[in-house]
Amino acid sequence: MKKEELFDIIGEVDEDKVAAAGMAMTEKKQSCPAWLKWGTAAACLCLAVLACAAAPMLQNKPGAGGVQRGGIPDTGTVQLENTSEITQPARRNRLVVNEVDKKMTSDMDVQIFHEQDLSASQREAFLKEFEAAIGLRYDDFTAKISDAFVKRSFYSVNVPADAARTKYVPHDYVFEYQTQTGGELRIAVCSAETPLRDSFLVCEDPTESEINGVAVVIYGYQDAFVVEFSNENVNYDIETRNITLEELEELLVGLVG
Predict the structure, then answer these.
(1) Coil, helix or strand at residue 166
(2) CB 173 within 8 A of CB 189
(3) DSSP-assigned beta bridge partners for residue 114
(4) Quick check: 112 pLDDT over 60?
(5) Most confident range, picked from 19-23, 48-52, 134-138
(6) What are the start-end ranges of the H helices in the chain?
(7) Do strands 209-211 and 93-101 pair parallel, antiparallel, or not at all (unpaired)?
(8) Nearest CA to 101 among 219, 8, 246?
(9) Which residue, 174, 188, 197, 184, is CA-closest to 235?
């Protein structure tokens, strides 16, 4: 695969909020999982391996007084090896983006069931299955998402229940959103284990972020953020495209609560 230049994540933040930023990429060796990107019809899962690139850090300017967010002085950015970090102690959020490059794929058998394709009675049963699996009512879950994101679709990713593949059962429930500025968001949730995905990141000891006390791992890949975390017995796998780091933070704060 031809190497592509990774996007500058700090470019999404106002210029007067950041003291300095830079990036460099170095291939890594140890793997850790990232995201699944689904088609709109019954499709195959693809497993991918992505090589993690090291990103040089944001650094404090002596005497600069730190990054300003919402008029509140911050402690400023902190230099960490292979990551870019922004810390917001007032809200107890610490965002660290681990940069990624490259992928490979293979296939797995799944089926996709969209909410909009169901009858009224089928949809009611579908939402009850979601509540039983995730432990949250559909309306309570979607209420966690900012109004800046508009829902496009809701579906389940079903896997074979037996070797003969005569029956498929839900493994993940997936929400897709978009923004008025062209941003895209996909949230996959699963209570049994981590959601299925078609790509795996290769990243040596990725640095964790923290959102309201919950540990999350954030990866940056071209124009995308990929986030993994578990909260209240639900496993999340999130992929975004063309949204800012601040929009990502707002999303994660809403989901974590």
Answers:
(1) coil
(2) yes
(3) 155
(4) yes
(5) 134-138
(6) 120-134, 138-142, 245-256
(7) antiparallel
(8) 219
(9) 188
